Amino acid sequence: MREATFAVLDAAYAAGVRWVDVARSYGRAEEFLAGWLAERGHRDLTVSSKWGYTYVGGWRMDATMHEVKEHSAGVFSRQWTESRSLLGNAINLYQVHSLTVDSPLFTDEALQRALAALSDDGVRVGFSTSGPRQAEVIRRAFELEVAGRPVFSAVQSTWNLLEPSAGPALGEAHAAGNLVLVKETLANGRLVVSPPPAITRLAQRFGVGADAIAVAAVLAQPWADTVLVGPASVPQLTANLAANGVDLPRGELAGLRALAEPPERYWDRRSSLQWQ
After folding, report:
1. Are 129 and 158 in contact (CB under 8 A)?
2. Distant-in-sequence, close-in-space partners of 170: CB < 8 Å, separation ≥ 6
3. Residue 154: helix, strand or coil by DSSP?
């Protein structure tokens, strides 16, 4: 697993990728990234990680529970210490993992102060979002302040051709000077395994895979500062990066809007997907 990770990271770096996003709950992702950075000596990368979930799956695909979520000052302190011990000063952005409207973070002033203090150490503070109410979370989170200063200056949200509902809120965040990262660009594989005919047609037209069309649609959004992909192999990475050579016409982008699903339906379907 370590060798496969290094191979993907090497190929990504050679292709010009300079951002790597991990999380405490992504298995040994932070450990592998730290080892790769130590061996390769690269200093021109932006590294972001996340806290708030603890992996408890025991490396079993059939585990009853894979992650435990807790947004508390205690978990933040523990996981920040763990992330820092592995990645040191390489961490540029630290994010609350999967902030939702019911997170205690919104009322926990001690936790807000602890997060804001990271900025004093030169670490940018952000949050990721999930669920059908992403737009509401984005707007509420950017209103949080400590001593008159915003707690957050970055957001990582799901936006893809099936679930674009966060788009207006992400546009507002970008216009206000915040950093916008986009995740789940392939809709957890749904846009690749069984791509809609409109995507298949465009893939054939541009001579790329369905994944490149889906990613190109995200790259076309003016508020998307950093677009994340999650390849598990070098061939997948190469296919994903082909999106950089796809310039979707405005008319085609407008037509792809018809693929959007109601947010509640999309997230219900996502929650039923098998853990992989």
Report:
1. yes
2. 138, 155, 157, 159, 180, 182, 221, 223, 224
3. strand
Return the pLDDT at 275.
53
pLDDT digits (tens, 9 = 90+) for 42-74: 999 999 999 999 877 676 766 667 778 999 999
Helix (H, G, I), strand (E, B) or coil at 267: helix
Give the integer Cα–Cα distance in Å for 156 and 138: 9
Angle at 7 between CA 161 and CA 45, to 5 degrees: 70
pTM: 0.95
Q: Summarize pLDDT for 171-217 with one digit per residue, the tens.
A: 999 999 999 999 999 999 999 999 999 999 999 999 999 999 999 99
The structural domains of the chain, ordered by start, are: 2-272 (3.20.20.100)
The HSE-up count of residue 271 (CA atoms within 13 Å, CB side) is 9
Least Cα distance to 92 among 146, 142, 154, 1 occurs for 154
How many separate helices (H) and strands (E) can be counted in the chain?
12, 11
3-class SS of residue 158: strand
Report how far residue 1's alpha carbon sits from residue 28's, in angstroms, rounded to the nearest whole number. Answer: 9
